[in-house]
Protein 1
Amino acid sequence: MGESYVLDCSSILGPVEKVQKQDLANFSKQLGDTLSGVGFAYLTNHGLDLKKIDKFYDVSKEFFDLPKESKIKIRKPPGASSLHGYAAPGDETLNEQAPDAANELREFIDILGHIDTNDVPYFPPELPSFKDAVDEFRLESVKLADKVMRSIALYLGLPEDEIVKRHTHMKDTSVETPTVVRTLMYSPIAKLPDVKISDRVGEIRCGIHCDWLTITLLYQDLVGGLDVQTVSGEWIAATPIENSILLICGDIMEIYSGGRIRATPHRVRIPDDTQLTKKPRQSLLYAPGPDSNQTVEPLLPIPEIYIGKPRSIYGPQSYDKMNAYEWVHRRFSTAATY
Ligand SMILES: O=C(O)CCC(=O)C(=O)O
Ligand SMILES: [Fe+2]
């Protein structure tokens, strides 16, 4: 794992008003060079409360261990009419190249923003601590997402708050947004129900895709299997680094930056090591997108080389203006298999 994409955040810890301008500027240069040159970054010494992250892992595991009948009580409604809720293995398929739902072996719960008004059907009734765990996880993640967005804006030569001011829900949860908190579980391969060994050709834990929002903070356990594609097109293992957070960018960042920062293609393979396939894998993510009513378009002119040319076949196909919520809803509807 090259040092070049592991970024130490210790110089920018604490409330953003107290961070030295020069420290934020230095971090911004390092981060921007890494995202535009390599395509993703590991953030270490990020100062987030790991106990809160662990609590979300633990309560999530309790949920995924429940019988299927309990889990499907909070299943997402058909046709993506609401984006909140549980997706069973195969309910959402991301690999547009090989859209075979049976082959995507992840299950997850999505909790969209503005949960205060929507909490009743979307939290597992068996687990009263689930909602608090989500809230704490989100509040920790916001601290880092805020600084990442400020740093990227500075890198692009924009005012520091140019991106965060489009994400006011990060501080005010009454504002509607397609921002997602997601908790994922990949069962041990041996334990998967309903999938015959002979059908397992081409099976993957999560198909190739780019995320749909602005950025994604991805927390993974130590099992591994996640791959990311570098800007130069090479697929490499995003090997877990303990207590680090992987930062990848989504479609909306690619559009905001006029293609200077590309959305990061990624996938989750079944580990080659058979011992590891017997272990469950868990990951958590916080993927902030703009407030729902925001229009998304490049925040600075598109460089000539990117005009009419999407950066990645998995990312946004144009830099056209769009409404933030409609875009994310469209992407969810395409991925839903029922
Ligand atoms: O589990 C992971 O590490 C990645 C999951 C993912 O890419 C997604 O749900 O969008
Ligand atoms: Fe993803």
Protein 2
Amino acid sequence: MFMRKKRIVIALGGNALGSTLSEQRKAAGHTARVIVDLVDEGCEVIVTHGNGPQVGMISNAMAALSRERSEQPNTPLSVCVAMSQAYIGYDLQNALREELRLRGYDTPVTTMMTQVRVNEDDPAFLSPSKPIGHFMTKKQAEEAEKQYGYVMKEDAGRGYRRVVASPRPAEIIEMDAIRSLVDSGHLVIACGGGGIPVTRCEARLSGASAVIDKDFASCLLAEQLDADFLIILTAVEKVAINFGKQNETWLDRMTVKDAEHYIREGQFAPGSMLPKVQAAAEFASSRPGRNALITLLEKARDGICGTTGTLICQ
Ligand SMILES: Nc1ncnc2c1ncn2[C@@H]1O[C@H](COP(=O)(O)OP(=O)(O)O)[C@@H](O)[C@H]1O
Ligand SMILES: NC(=O)OP(=O)(O)O
């Protein structure tokens, strides 16, 4: 009998990819080893990634260029997201290709420039919530607010960051192309940085000023590819309740109902752990047998074997 391989969508956190080119190269190599371990386990893997630090860096660099050359208009955030997909996809694609070849696979690796449609009237456009760029002190954040008009917020106890609108993904424009590539055996990197945000008016797609959360875009991609597992890799091994407090408790398992309860209690920081738990719960509730896992990159293999991470299931 034909047994389909376990199909896994792996979402890599933007913060884990480092903030310089050399850090990113190193992280991509390390990430590739972890992903090819899962291929060795017989899994079919689709990769998505965040871009928070990187898209902030690109946006700052482009803004500095337009200040320096007054004829250069400011670069829209949608274009900065597109640049971040290429910047990160290039390193991941090559690192994966190399690791696969070293282990005797000739699997083609393809990065798909992915546009994701958002709704123009999404209320998220009115209240920026997605942290991007580097972490700042309170004083630096106040300076950035004054000098550049950025909206700044404290990010999960780690310092201040610029925040931008983060509407929910409604449709993956290149979905048919991604599905064809996956079905024909490519290891696909898609929905980078949550996808290039676009709105649609008849045949025309226009870039939107936003950064989509890659956890929500990954959930949509995993549902549409009929994946069995959504793995969200980040900087913590497990999800905690009472995070950072004396009674902090790390969770091995959360049902969708538990997740909803903890979300209502405000246990997860918006812009960091909250979207991960929301996306994981949404995926786990979309069809019986679908599970999601949140863990550290290094623990991905142990996680799918059930020995660590926080499993989110029905
Ligand atoms: N309840 C929680 N449990 C675990 N981590 C949490 C919690 N709330 C906030 N965090 C923080 O969220 C971080 C993960 O979010 P973030 O770094 O924004 O994600 P990404 O990996 O997608 O870049 C963790 O490293 C941790 O500092
Ligand atoms: N776009 C996005 O979700 O990026 P991070 O994973 O860096 O937050």
